[in-house]
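Inverse folding, one chain.
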């Protein structure tokens, strides 16, 4: 073949090949545009347009008086786009020194030279999402925006601010487990009120269409289909912060004093079931007591002697005996099969009434009473306990309630000693809240109400829902049995195991409990040692019950484990706090004070304030009308108060004995004296005698009545 033909042939092959490729490309273009055009248009839109969820503001959890228990506080993550097209490199280098100094002064975590080095390094790497700082507060964020370079804005300054919300408890650990928390992962949240009311607290998410720009920046688009988020509701609880504080501090003191493992205290309003305080403290690995688990709701244990009340109420309803009937408690011990049941009193109680059995908490007396009347018909007693709803959960909103258990005849573990053990609180399991609910029913004319933790929901200050009182059992027993139960409960404090709780201001009714703690493997004795649960449950004032309360202290280990000594003081301190802060509860006492015609004690002090208080309280006082000095001595008589003038002269040390520290400081510092007070209360002694001439830089020491 000639050279010319060879060249022509090669050119033709190349031409045909190029033509064929062109036809294929053209055909592919037509196919993509005509057949798959819609598909790729949608893919393009998905990559450049996207619906973003807008998170709503989570609602607050509030105490009964509106104070915050849990709230969301905005925190910010600060990042920098150091490769922004709008950022001037020369401007960055010019401002990096001053910016580093400002950052170091604001956060006080690194020296300015370290900030500068890290910023320059990120700038050289053209980092588009450099993390500067996490958990920045709102105040810090506002100040940050005024810094050199950052004040230029998002693009020229490279500043990226990402808001996150952090849940905080302004009252710290007060009722922490009851308030609960929210999870930061995908697992469902079931802890406390946060979990129980999560659906109403979290609100509804919004939707916003955004477009992707260069640099992975998303810009919102106004397409008319935007859905605004709806903030969550605020949850108003029944918790009283002041009582809660007293409950936790009192419980903590008793746990420390008795070297106990953990404890709980619950205060409930009788008529409504409102939980005014609920504290759970447990010793952690460092020996500190903290809220780690909600024992009040979740720990189902053998209650011991506090269960004697339901047993006696059931027996009295059946007409098995009366509280005036007698039983021989013998010498303090009795044996049923292989089980020895003992009383705490050496030598026993002998022959006593049923009422006295309850007052002194005789295990022997209780077991003999129940075995004598129910040994051949145990189902009747257990059915009666079941009819009072003691075998069912309360059904509270907070998750994790322990399951109650009262052994039933014919069960796998029922035995010949089961009835005797149940009579004084063994082979039974209940949570502290379940026990309290029964005692509250006795205080509430037999009506068992469901414990209430939340009273209402609010939205931007407006009430949107109220939660009413829910009755679980309209009558746990007859009126006649109720009267007998009241007598027995009052007798425990007046003449029985809780006499240390008796006081002259208001009457308490309740029951002590001391139970051995059973170990699943080893029974009640582990390494030759027995652990106990000490408890006290009752209500006050006994003659017109307003509040019920239970205190349970587990495993006290300082050789003191009786309910009246370990749990009783916590009950009394909480009850005292409620009493002194409630004028309604004090009306009877104030009436009594009027009848006794006793004048109340008052400190010396400022006359207008003294007279104002006396007039408000209706206290009779006598004052010499010729003496109208501003400062007075108050002298208490049997039925009247004498007000005598206290002469205060310029440049002379005044007599401040008998005054409160506030008034004493005012008078002494007014004369130019430097005051050092030792203690608090009322001024007992002063180092400079009244009438001493005051000189410059003179110091006076005050000895107070309390230290």
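Residues assigned per position:
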């Amino acid at each position: 073949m000639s050279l010319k033909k060879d060249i022509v042939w090669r050119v033709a092959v190349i031409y045909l090949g190029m033509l064929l490729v062109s036809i294929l490309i053209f055909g592919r273009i037509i196919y993509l545009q005509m057949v798959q055009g819609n598909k790729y248009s949608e893919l393009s839109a998905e990559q450049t347009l996207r619906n973003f969820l807008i998170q709503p503001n989570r609602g607050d959890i509030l105490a009964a008086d509106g104070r915050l228990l849990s709230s969301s506080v905005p925190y910010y993550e600060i990042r920098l786009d150091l490769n922004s097209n709008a950022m001037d490199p020369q401007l960055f280098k010019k401002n990096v020194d001053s910016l580093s100094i400002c950052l170091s002064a604001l956060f006080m975590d690194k020296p300015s030279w370290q900030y500068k080095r890290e910023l320059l390094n990120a700038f050289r790497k053209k980092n588009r999402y450099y993390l500067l700082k996490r958990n920045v507060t709102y105040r810090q964020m506002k100040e940050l925006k005024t810094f050199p370079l950052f004040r230029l804005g998002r693009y020229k300054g490279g500043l990226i601010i990402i808001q996150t919300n952090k849940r905080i408890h302004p009252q710290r650990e007060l009722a922490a487990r009851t308030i609960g928390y929210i999870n930061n992962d995908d697992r469902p949240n079931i802890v406390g009120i946060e979990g129980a009311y999560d659906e109403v607290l979290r609100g509804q998410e919004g939707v916003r269409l955004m477009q992707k720009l260069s640099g992975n920046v998303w810009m919102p688009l106004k397409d008319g289909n935007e859905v605004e988020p709806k903030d969550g509701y605020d949850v108003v609880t029944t918790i009283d912060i002041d009582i809660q504080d007293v409950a936790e501090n009192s419980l903590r003191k008793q746990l420390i004093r008795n070297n106990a493992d953990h404890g709980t205290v619950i205060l409930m309003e009788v008529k409504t079931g409102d939980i005014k305080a609920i504290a759970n403290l447990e010793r952690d690995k460092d020996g500190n007591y903290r809220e780690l688990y909600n024992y009040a709701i979740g720990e189902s244990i053998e209650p011991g002697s506090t269960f004697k009340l339901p047993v006696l109420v059931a027996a009295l309803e059946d007409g098995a005996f009366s509280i005036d009937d007698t039983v021989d408690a013998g010498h303090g011990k009795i044996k049923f099969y292989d089980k020895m049941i003992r009383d705490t009193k050496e030598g026993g109680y002998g022959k006593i009434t049923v009422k006295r059995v309850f007052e002194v908490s005789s295990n022997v007396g209780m077991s003999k009473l129940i075995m004598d009347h129910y040994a051949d018909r145990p189902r009747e007693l257990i059915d009666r306990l079941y009819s009072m709803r003691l075998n069912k959960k309360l059904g509270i909103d907070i998750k994790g309630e322990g399951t109650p258990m009262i052994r039933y005849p014919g069960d796998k573990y029922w035995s010949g000693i089961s009835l005797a053990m149940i009579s004084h609180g063994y082979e039974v399991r209940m949570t502290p809240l379940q026990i309290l609910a029964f005692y509250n029913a006795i205080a509430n004319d037999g009506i068992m109400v469901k414990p209430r933790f939340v009273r209402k929901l609010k939205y931007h200050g407006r009430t949107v829902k109220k939660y009413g009182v829910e009755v679980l059992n309209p009558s746990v027993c007859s009126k006649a049995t109720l009267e007998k139960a009241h007598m027995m409960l009052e007798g425990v404090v007046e003449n029985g195991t809780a006499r240390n709780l008796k006081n002259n201001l208001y009457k308490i009714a309740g029951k002590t409990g001391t139970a051995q703690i059973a170990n699943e493997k080893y029974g009640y004795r582990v390494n030759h040692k027995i652990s106990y649960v000490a408890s006290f449950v009752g209500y006050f004032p006994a003659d017109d019950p307003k509040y019920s309360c239970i205190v349970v202290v587990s495993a006290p280990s300082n050789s003191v484990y009786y309910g009246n000594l370990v749990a009783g003081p916590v009950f009394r301190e909480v009850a005292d706090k409620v009493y002194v802060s409630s004028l309604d509860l004090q009306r009877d006492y104030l009436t009594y004070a009027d009848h006794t015609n006793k004048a109340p004690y008052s400190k010396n002090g400022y006359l207008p304030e003294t007279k104002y208080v006396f007039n408000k309280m209706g206290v009779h006082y006598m004052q010499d009308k010729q003496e109208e000095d501003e400062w007075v001595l108050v002298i208490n008589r049997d039925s009247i108060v004498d007000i005598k003038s206290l002469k205060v002269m310029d440049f002379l040390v005044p007599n401040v004995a008998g005054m409160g520290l506030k008034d004493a400081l005012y008078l002494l510092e007014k004369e130019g004296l430097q005051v050092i007070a030792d203690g608090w209360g009322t001024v007992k002694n002063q180092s400079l005698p009244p009438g001493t001439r005051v000189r410059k830089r003179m110091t006076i020491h005050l000895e107070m009545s309390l230290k």
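The chain is about 35% helix and 25% strand. Residues 592-597 have pLDDT under 50 and may be disordered.
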